């Protein structure tokens, strides 16, 4: 077995180049076919016309609002958290990627603006998913030359959380853009680590890619932060640490420039110095500034004895962290720092925020489904680090890959949504299985080992199909036929039928089922109170207070303060309802009793279509 990848691989012959391109074409066609099948299948967006999650509807509303008003800095959705509007932590890069094609379709083909935005957004996830797969192959090619790199693309393409979840048509969300930026940054950082004296552009490119990722969402720091730390470790342990410090300086400097542009572009001038933990802001610029300063000092200390470098590194790192936390105490908590206390208590009940715990019922299924691709990385990384431990040219690249893998793996175990970030690091590392297989002696052994490596890297997540699944929630939620029928009725025959859809001034509905409010806000001419977003804790608190109130006056105070016109009650209560067990004398329990005979005199039951009876109840609030 070879001990290292050659510094300069010999140029591939014409047949090798043709085969390499053929593999890429096959993967592209396979990806297009898979996404086409999912989009046009019985539950696909092209068949039922429904987006696949709450964020998709809110993102679409947000882009429609941008097109309608042209207000670049507006971050509120007036149809949610009524009557105040819901402040969002999302940023504009994905909005621009979606709105651009929609405007082109509108102006060149005369497409309806709402439909153009709907379909541009619905197709953005699979397009970015395919781009991320090719970015994974490019990133892996820094370590694993030849066809082994395409295994990284195959792992990203076939990953269940991406293929059937965040990357599927109808998921109008930013996760795939974060993944793409992370893979581009990781691939460039690997190249910068392999040739620290030569590849300045790679380090700069990595910094710009990571800046884009943080602009989209600060969760991109799960990859960017450990990558920068890896260059710090290389500076500490290498015989001459100065080249690695320079690469770290270039990377952090590029991030600084990119993040400064992001803040200037994203926020009005009055808020350029306002820090936000869950959205790109000046605190992220400060992070990059502190990192660049630390690396700038480290360049001068690169030839010191390792003991002195360790002391200097601890001092620089400790001082940087102290400054950051002194100015922004919640910097390490990210989005949770911006969440209302009421919403923080609800986080464990949100599906994508649940931990991957194999000891829970169905937990092993979830672990394999969401993070099964990490198994290949867990096999490769220890072997690679052991193989390259004495290779001064190689072990820094191993550290650049290993540290973000550990960080994203830990994050995914705590909250399954971070399995998207884990896919970036595990795919690049997992492709190394095929590289190891290609080191086997004899063509037959190589072929067998290669197919086994591919099967392990790609197939491990699908072992979840043979395991018991966790209990499933109520089907009458976002994807249920009942909520779709409710949306149709409210949009056409409901109390405010015939009003514009959506209507920023429509009547306000309070409902106990937060999972349907984004969809209803998009489909109907009403505004809604509660929504499943961490900046909407006040609306969640009012929802709980109203339905849980045993005092009619306290419940009525909530309704009057928010100007609520209607109350929508789900029958039966969803198992994951925010209300929890209701007291028998609470207003929520009274409204669920047969015939709602115990409802207050100031609530008037409204008739619903037969298909909605037994699933929902609607009351008008009398003034």
UniProtKB/TrEMBL annotation:
Keyword Transmembrane set for record: yes
Keywords: Membrane, Transmembrane, Transmembrane helix
Keyword Membrane in annotation: yes
Transmembrane segments: 20-38, 116-141, 147-164, 176-194, 214-237, 249-265, 285-303, 310-328, 367-388, 395-413, 419-436, 448-467
Protein name, per record: Glycosyltransferase RgtA/B/C/D-like domain-containing protein
